[in-house]
Amino acid sequence: MNCEKWATGCLLLFIMLIFWATGCKYKGNEIPKAEGTPSAKPDAVVSDPLPSWNNGPLKESIIAYVKGVTDTASHTFIPVIDRIATFDNDGTLWAEKPFVQELFIQYRVRRMVKDNPALANKQPFKAVLEGNKSYFTTGGDKAIIQLIAAMHTGMTADKFELAVHDFFAYATYPRLNVPIRDIIYQPQLELLQYLRSNGFTTFICTGGTAEFVRGISWQLYDIPKYQVIGTTFKYQYNDSIKSVIRQPVLTLINDKEGKPAGIATFIGQRPVFACGNEGGEGDIAMLTFCQGSRYPSYQLLINHDDSTREFYYQEQSNASLNAAAKNNWHVVSMQKDWQRVFPDTSQQH
User: Fold this and answer.
1) Buried b (16+ CB within 10 A) or exposed e, 239-268
2) Which residues fall within 8 angstroms of residue 24, CB to CB, at 6 or more apart?
3) pTM above 0.85, yes or no
4) Alpha-carbon distance 344 to 217, whole Å?
5) Would you call 277 helix, strand, or coil by DSSP?
6) Helix, strand, or coil (residue 280)
7) Which residues contact residue 255 at a Cβ distance below 8 angstroms, ignoring those fewer than 6 apart?
8) If residue 20 lies in a helix (H) or strand (E), which one and from where to where?
C-alpha cells in the first residue's frame, strides 16, 4: 500500500541521516534542568512577555491575538477549554541539523555494544558502527525495522526513559558544541510560557518518536509527557511484569498529513494556535488543519534564515513558505525577528 511505502521511505531517510551526523559525548544519567527554560516562572505582571523577540509587526500580532482571544468582552474570545496550541519540535523548538534523535540512535548503539561487545559483530549494530549505509539501502524494510526494534522497542517504558535521560544528561550537540539542552530556542520558550500564562494548553506534535520526546518534554519545555504527540509504536501489555512493551510495528507516522490525524486521535479537537517550521514540508498540514478552526486561529512558521546564529537552509520546493504566503500565515525570520536564538547559557557561533 502507498502509505506503507511512504512510511518505509521516511524511515530509510532517517537511517541514512544517522551516518551524516558527527559524534557526541555522553555521560551521566540525569537531565539537568536547562537554565533559561520556563522553569523560572515569570512574575504575575510582565511588561514584555516576549523579551527575546524583536519589536515589530510579528511580535505585536502574537500579543494582539492572545489579548483578543482571552478578552471575555471581545467577539474573538475563546474559552479556556478550547485554547489548544500545537508546536512541532525539530527545527521549531530546538535545532535540527542534525536531528537529535539521530544522535540518540548512535548513542544507543554504542552503549549497547559497550554493555555487550558481541553485538559489534551483529547487525544492525555492526552497520551503524562502520557507517555502512548500503546495509540499510539493500536490506530494505527488514533491516530498518531491525534497527528501530533494537533501539526503541522490546523494553518497558521506564527502561527506555532511563536511556533517554542518560543520553540527554551531558550529550554534546555537533557544530554548536553545546549540551543538548542549550539548542532549544529561547524565543520559543518564552512563547510557550506566554501562551500557558494566558490559559492555553501547549502540545508538542513531532515527527520524532513520542517516547523519545516524552523523556525530556517536561525538563526542557514544561510540557508533560501526556501532551506529546509523535510517531508511535504498537503497545502490548505484559501481565507477568505489569508493564507495557513496545512492539516493532509503527501505528502512526506523525509527519505531514499524519499530524492532523495524530492531533485528532490524541487531543480530539483542532488547535487554535499552531507553530511549525520550513525545511521538510512536515508542518503544512498541521497549520492548515489549525486554520480550519471555528475560532480565530494563528499559524506561525519558523524560517531558518540565520546562518550566523543558527543554520541557513530552505526547502527546494519552497512548499512551506509558499503555503504561508497563500494562506496568510505568520513567518518568523530568525535573523530579523529573534533578538537571540538560544538561551544565555549557549555558546552561539
Assistant:
1) eeeeeebbebebebbbbbbbbbbbbeebbe
2) 103, 106, 107, 171, 172, 173, 174
3) yes
4) 20
5) strand
6) coil
7) 10, 207, 231, 282
8) none
The per-residue pLDDT for range 37-65, each reduced to its tens digit, is 444 444 445 689 999 999 999 999 999 99
Q: Which of 108-112, 145-149, 175-179 has the lowest mean pLDDT?
A: 145-149
Rama region for 28: left / alpha / beta (φ>0; ψ in -120 to 50; rest): left
Radius of gyration of the chain from its Cα atoms, rounded to whole angstroms: 20
| Numbers of helices and strands, H then E, in the chain | 13, 9
| CA distances to 31, 187, 325, 334 from 287, in Å | 31, 20, 13, 19
* Three cell numbers, residue 312: 541557513
Query: Cα(319)–Cα(340) distance, rounded to whole angstroms?
Result: 27
Instruction: Give the length of the chain.
Output: 349
Q: Give the end-to-end CA distance of the chain in Å, rounded to a whole number.
A: 45
